[in-house]
Write a structure and sequence with these properties.
By secondary structure, the chain is of the alpha+beta class. Helices cover 43% and strands 20% of the residues. A hairpin with a 5-residue loop joins β7 and β8.
Length: 298
């Protein structure tokens, strides 16, 4: 989720009866604090790709950062109160991020494996608009703010539960019609009954759409993982590709020719439904197979 949606979530939680002084500010800060790792963008998009949703979205940060916030706002009075709501806001951020396919290293630093429920897209307008409406209605009717915010949270939880059901339904539907060893179901923007899938069997990867409404499977592309290629192996030595491979679950390399140059293009197939070169790493070689440059695009 984006920082605006997270801040709206913090404002919604604050309307649940947390009226003590500074409660709103504590919840707003705690709700966006995990995204402090946005600072990694300074060192390039590939570094952001590697470190976003890492240590600041893990168990250690969930315990430590709310503690720091509580010390700042409740050093003299109300420490445990502010720690509780900081923990609540911080934990809500992590759980919201866990719902989409970007991946969250929630067990870091004990385990750096990215986990995801794959039930919402990175930005979900239904969640953002629902939270925004809640904040507006609570401001217009302060007497019923607790009821409005509680109802909003129940509706959003029901929304997430419904998407979880559709995700599992799509997975079962795909398994019944396409034989493979590995299945991954990913949400599409603003879609409920159509999902993006990636399957892997041996060295073959298939990607496409599973449509619950039409009860059809559309295989968009089939990729064959080739034997090791010197250029591909050499591209793995660049920091750009190393960071890309740290993030990607289904990386696929291709070699393209551009005049006298050859380009190794790495794609994350979990996002290959997006038009253009999104989530791609490129390494350009000259005619002597020397690296000229490397780049990454979101």
């Amino acid at each position: 989720m984006d920082p605006i949606t997270h801040s709206l979530a913090g404002a919604t939680i604050s309307r649940l009866g947390f009226k003590r002084k500074a409660s709103l500010w504590v919840l707003l800060i705690a709700s966006v604090a995990p995204d402090l790792d946005y600072i990694s963008r300074i060192w390039g998009p590939d570094m952001f790709l590697r470190y976003h949703r890492g240590i600041t979205h893990g168990l250690l940060a969930l315990l430590v950062i709310p503690l720091i916030i509580a010390l700042i706002f409740g050093f003299r009075k109300g420490f445990f109160y502010y720690y509780f709501i900081s923990f609540l806001g911080y934990g809500t951020h992590i759980l919201m991020d866990l719902t989409n396919q970007y991946g969250t290293r929630i067990l870091s630093p004990l385990d750096w494996t990215p986990y995801s429920l794959d039930i919402t897209f990175i930005i979900d307008p239904y969640i953002s608009i629902g939270l925004l409406l809640c904040v507006i209605f609570c401001a217009l009717n302060r007497k019923k703010a607790v009821i409005i915010s509680a109802l909003t949270i129940v509706l959003l939880l029901s929304y997430a539960g419904g998407r979880y059901y559709l995700h599992n339904k799509t997975r079962d539907f795909l398994k019944a019609r396409l034989e493979a060893n590995t299945y991954r179901i990913c949400p599409l923007p603003n879609d409920f009954l159509r999902w993006w899938f990636i399957t892997k069997s041996g060295n073959e990867i298939k990607v496409g759409f599973a449509d619950l409404f039409t009860q059809r499977i559309y295989v968009q592309d089939t990729f064959i993982l080739a034997d090791k290629n010197p250029l591909i192996e050499q591209s793995k030595e660049t920091s750009i590709v190393k960071n890309f491979l740290y993030f990607a679950n289904f990386p696929y390399p291709e070699i393209k020719t551009d005049k006298n140059r050859r380009v190794v293009v790495w794609r994350e197939l979990a996002y290959s439904f997006m038009p253009g070169d999104h989530f791609t790493a490129k390494v350009v070689f000259d005619e002597n197979n020397k690296i000229l440059r490397s780049e990454f695009k979101f």
